[in-house]
UniProtKB/TrEMBL annotation:
It comes from Halorubellus litoreus. This is Mov34/MPN/PAD-1 family protein. PROSITE patterns: MPN. Keywords: Hydrolase, Metal-binding, Metalloprotease, Protease, Zinc. Residues 14-139 form the MPN domain.
Amino acid sequence: MGLFDRFFRSRNVAGIARDTLEFALSSAEDTHPNEYMGFMRGTPAREFDLGEEIHPDDYVVTDVLVIPGTTSNEMSATVDNNMIPNDMRTVGSIHSHPNGVLRPSDADLATFTSGSVHVIMGAPYRTSDWRAFDQEGEPATLPVLDVDLDDPEAFFDFDQYDIDDELRSGDTY
């Protein structure tokens, strides 16, 4: 099992939080004309009041994790694999195409092998300027959900004890 295989686990993704999508679009616009790159993290749907249509074990994309040391230019973004944490909640990737093309490139397809959903955003980064894809690069449905998210600073409020406790619990976030 490789690093990416441990980092990404196939999960059913019910949707993406509106605030998370808006954050990613804004970040991509701020990075323009260079590519933006991040990893999408999910929270179990049972954490939100989403009704019976969504299975409680499905995930809602609630965070975008930008890896330190990521470099980008107008044609690509490169992640330093040594900096990727073993985050059990990662469900896929999100990146921008500054040229506005909302289709995966051959290079994108090579990175789509891990995770269950991948998002490409394109200039000018409006709420309609993105598409979701599955591992094979086929269009995927990713509804935008209105959910209340925790304080983003809470993401950083953990220590090694919390990590060890999550691993011991066998929870497969």
